[in-house]
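May I ask you for just one protein sequence along with its backbone structure tokens in two labelled lines?

_____
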Amino acid sequence: MARIFLAGASGLIGQQLVTLLVQAGHHVTGTTRAEGKTALLRSLGATPVVVDVFDAGALRRVVVASEPQVVLHQLTALPDGQSSLGDAAMERALRDNARMRTEGTANLVAAALAAGARRLVAQSIAWIYAPGREPHVESDPVNTGASGLAAISIQGVMALEAAVLGAALESVVLRNGGLYGPGTGRDTPWRDPAVHVDAAAHAAALAVDRGSGVYNVAEPSKYLSSERARRELGWDSSFRIGG
């Protein structure tokens, strides 16, 4: 069993992931930015810490203190109720999330290295491929020619993936489809590709001790293939907690 530092433990995937990790016998230190969410994390079996990922010094201190073998990156900065945001609010939200992926990821990678962690697993998104042959596989090019709001997201994702995969650690990036399920406000898939929040957490839990590089994590889709995740991680898109 491993000592795990889970950044973003109070998020949608993070909460489900804490449950899976604790059930597997791992010791989990989980972060939140809100003091009010520490009781929730404690009830799930994690040791909570309150830290702002943009405070590089504070983040480094709490990561080093937890002595993790594995660091999991589930940080996002998107607000609830995204579908109801106007154009200006959505652009601000996407820029905040891109900053999380760039500055926040860089700070977390540096902290993981300082703590002597051996492995780093990070969430990414799946709808980033350049137009071309489908279904897309992980080696297909990213759509660097995107414009508008899509460009904001893709630039943040590229920074995140470069920081994670370029670190002197065993590294895994999970390109998740659009989330649905508990806490998401959506009971059924709403975009292609899609993935249930439990199944996304399942992929991250599997990646604690297996896999390397980039994996698509989505239900069967015309847009992309998740065969590599099924083959190398043993991932199942139909996985549900308690199911």
